[in-house]
Every structure is written in structure tokens, then in C-alpha cells.
Amino acid sequence: MPLVPIAARLSAVLGRSAGFIRSVFIIFLFGEVFPLITFLLALAALITGYFIYGRIVDHFFGPDDRQTPATIHNDGVDYIPLPTWKVFLIQLLNIAGLGPIFGALGGALWGPSVYLWIVLGTIFAGGVHDYLSGMMSIREDGHSISEIVGHQMGSTMLNIMRVFSVILLILVGTVFMTGPAMLLAKLTSWEVLPWLIVVLAYYFLATMLPIDKIIARFYPIFGICLIIMAVGIAGGMLFGVGGHTMPEMVFANLYPGENQLPIWPLMFITVACGAISGFHSTQSPLMARCLKDERLGRPVFYGAMVAEGVICLIWAAAGVTFFDGTSGLQAALKAGGPGGAVYDICVGYMGTGIGAILAMLGVVACPITSGDTAFRAARLTLADWFKIDQVGLVKRLAFAVPLLGIGAVLSQMNFNIIWRYFSWTNQTLAMIVLWTGAVYLYRHCEGKAWLMACIPATFMSVVTSTYILQAKEGLELATSITYPAGIVFGAVCLALYLKATVFKKNSSSNEELEATPVENNLSIIKTLREGRRGVLFYCSFIYCKFSSFSNPLLSV
To answer: 88: domain range?
Structure first.
């Protein structure tokens, strides 16, 4: 069957986008008239985005009937074909740890305006990011994201990403080890250290054993519990349990005055999981090794991201609803932290019985199930790096023991210090993966498919650069400098990308570009090489600032 012209497809996309924009105006016009319209329209937009834009992304990528890594390399350890419903629930639980819960509560400090970032970020950025990272991994033999970036962007970026992703995964694993241990210590008579040992022992088993022994057996259960918890919270809000009123997104409360934190770029860093998260790109290859068919990529990768966006939306709404506005939420976070706020919301909307149980599962089990897969992804990243298969137990031990040992040492550091660097590194990784996806789409897909990754990549370039220039763990520059500098950085990244692809001279086809080493084509790689001294200086600066930063979100 002949393909529909690209122009027609783009027109259809623009038409659907115009319809979505009209929905946003409806929110403003009628938000004060119909109760819950903001939340319900945002929820409807997420679901519609999956069926419309998700299908568009999938169509441009072009999944086919080729064999997947799960069937080609079935090793009984990491490459194992699994049922689609299990892969979806595992993917959801891997990516939806504490991020869409704690991050949503932090983002709710900006009021209902966070709905816009959750909806737009999930549909046009996070969904594309997760889908591309998973599908590129399938197309590249199930390799880790660092290897994918290196293949598309050159050897320099390969080495940078190997180190960057391993460090990030260890930080994630450590954070999601320490947090649950601290909460369990509060709920029991044990100290933090015994719980750390218990969690670490579980991490060791989950990292070492074949994926179908623990993860594939128990994660779907926890994933269902996560969904039930979110549905219960949403039902409590919709039926007005406790007499709380959900605020609408109108011009009067678009940006509540009691919250003095800057919405740009802090909100876009705070709400990562639930909008876009680079950590997801380290998890998608785990499930790329378990999918039986490429055509299942949209429901698993894009679908799990939309599901996480729904969960994030529910918790953001619950934060401002249950505590009667941003002021009450801010006071609750100061008093009991995000964990205490989650517990109060669950018990308040679902009762002391099932509510307390689900709160325990959400606040304790969810981060643990993200932490163990973080260490597992780190093991596989190192295995891909050194080209060592992971079939033998001794080979898995060679990577798992040092990784978990480092995590154990880091767990003794100040928890807040480790957490402070997570959000920015997370969003920076998302930016890199989106640019990688843009390169892949230009090289392998027809028409203007690369725009789907290029536009959010440019946006995230502006966000991450503005934040690090402005934040206390960065350069602490004034907004009069950081705002224009961030825009300039994003424009430079876009210009370098266009120069290396669309506007590249002496190149008449994608095949010609593919035949040439990527690092010779992408001038950004040359720029990175020339600026290695600056990168080293900046890393040294970050290290010196490590212990002096005070995160405003942790002190609310």
C-alpha cells in the first residue's frame, strides 16, 4: 500500500495539535464554572495523547516483523521473552518509583499550572523519549542506552555516556535504598542500618538472578497495587471524600503567590518522572530484551510513560486538594516530608486499613523496585562496555558486588546531598537521549520524523542549561544572565544538529550520512573534544560545591 504523503501527515498532526490547544483555552474559560474540569481535561488529554500522538510517533518510527533480541539472544537471564502485560507492568514499576509521587507533590507547590507540564511533557517529550530509547535498543540488539548514544553520536559521547549513566544509576540505586530504609525505621523499632542491610541483600538477589525469578514474578503485583493506589486517590478526590475542594487552573491561581520558588526552570526539573525522565532510558533497554514483537513498543514504552503521567497528575492534584491549597501542602511537606504527606493522603482518602497498606507499598516498595533495576541496569551497562556476557554467575558477580559495594558506602553519606544532584543529572540525560533519538530518526526514518525528538531536545537543552547556571550547585548566576544564556545554549545545540544533518554539505542522502563515521559528521562532537578542559574544570567546580548546596525543595 503506498504511503500517505508526509505533508498530509504533518497537516493532520498540526490539526490535532490545534485541537489540543483549544482544549487548553477551554480550561481557562470554564475552569471556574464546572468543578474538576481542569483535572478531568488534563486526564482526557493524556489518554487522547497516547492514542493519537503515540500512534503518530509509532508510525514514523516504523516497527516491523523482524526478530527481537528476546528471541535471538534468549539466554535465560536478561534476554527472556515475557508476556506483554508483564513487560508493561514491569516497565511501569521500573520507571514509576517515587518520582511521580514525590516529584508530583513538589511540583504541586506551583498549583494547578503543573498540570500543563505533566500533560505536555508526557505526550510530546517523555513519551517520545521512552519510546525511542526502548525501540532503538530493540533495533540495536538490546544494548544499553550508553552504547546506543555512542553508536549514533560517536566514540566521544560513548565514553561520556558510559561513565555518566553508571554514576546516575548508582546514585538512583543508593537514593532508592536509603529512602525506604529511613521510612521503615520510622515505622518500626529497628534502626536505619539493619533496614539498609535488608534492602541491600534484596538488591543483590534482584540484580543477580534471572529477570523471570523475582522481577517478572512480583513486580506485576506491585504495579497493580500502584495503579489501585492511584485510582483510589483519584476516586476520593472526585467523590469529595473529606470535603476537600480541588482548585481549578484559572488565571487567578495559575501561579500561587505564596510559593516564591521560580517556576522557570525549577518546576521542569522538579517534575521529572511523570513528564520526562532520563532515568527511563536506562530502564527501557531492560524490557527491550524481553519484548517478543516490535509492534508492542507503543503500548509498553509510550503507554507506560502515559500511565506514569496519569499517576503523577493524580498525585499533583491530591497534593493541592487534600491540603486545601499550596500553603497547606507546603506546611505538610515541612512537617512530615513527602513520605508523611503521601501517608496522610492515602489514609485520608482510603481509610486506615487499605489506605495505610497501599501507602506502605507506594512509599516503600515502589522505590525499592526502581532501585534494584537501577543496579541491574548498571551491571548490564558495564557488561556492554567491557563486552562480557552475563550468562555465568561469576561474571554477574564481578560487576554486581562492586556496584552494590559502592552503593553501600554512598548510603552512609547525607541523604539530601545525594538527592540534590539527581534531578538535574536526570534531565540532562533525557536531553542527551532526545538528541540521540533525533539523529536516529534523521538517519533511518522518512520525512520530518526527526522533529518529534528535535523539538523537545531543544526545550530540555534550555531547561537544563538554565538550571545549572542558576542553581546553587552550579554557577549561582542571576536570572538576567541565566535566562538568555539558556536560550542561546538551546539555539546553539539546535544549530549544530541542523548543520550536521539537515544542512550538511556534500551529503545527498541519509545512506551517505550513515556510511560516514558519526563523530566526523556531528560538529558537536568536535566542540566537546575542544572543550574537554572546560568540562574538567566544571566538574571540579561542581565537586567543590557539592557540600555547600541547599536545595529549596528539600527545605519547603
So the answer is: 9-420
Using the 8-state DSSP alphabet, how is residue 66 labeled?
Answer: P
Q: Which residue has the cell 533497554?
A: 285
- The total of structural domains in the chain comes to 1
pLDDT the model gives residue 90: 86
> For the residues of 250-308, what is the DSSP string, one character each?
-GGGSS-TT--S-STTHHHHH--TTT--THHHHHHHHHHTT-S-GGGHIIIIIHHHHHH
What's the pLDDT tens digit per position in 149-188? Answer: 888 888 888 888 888 788 888 877 877 777 777 777 766 7
CATH of residue 236: 1.20.1730
The answer as to whether 546 is a domain residue is no
The verdict on residue 500 lying in a domain is: no
The percent of residues in the chain predicted with pLDDT above 90, rounded, is: 22
| Rg of the chain on CA atoms, in Å | 22
Instruction: Answer yes or no: is 529 within a domain.
Output: no
Domain-embedded: residue 547? no
CB 297 within 8 A of CB 135: yes
Rounded CA-CA distance 74/22 in Å is 48
DSSP letter assigned to residue 2: P
Is residue 331 within 8 Å of residue 323, measured between CB atoms? yes
Phi and psi at residue 248, to the nearest 5°: -95, 160
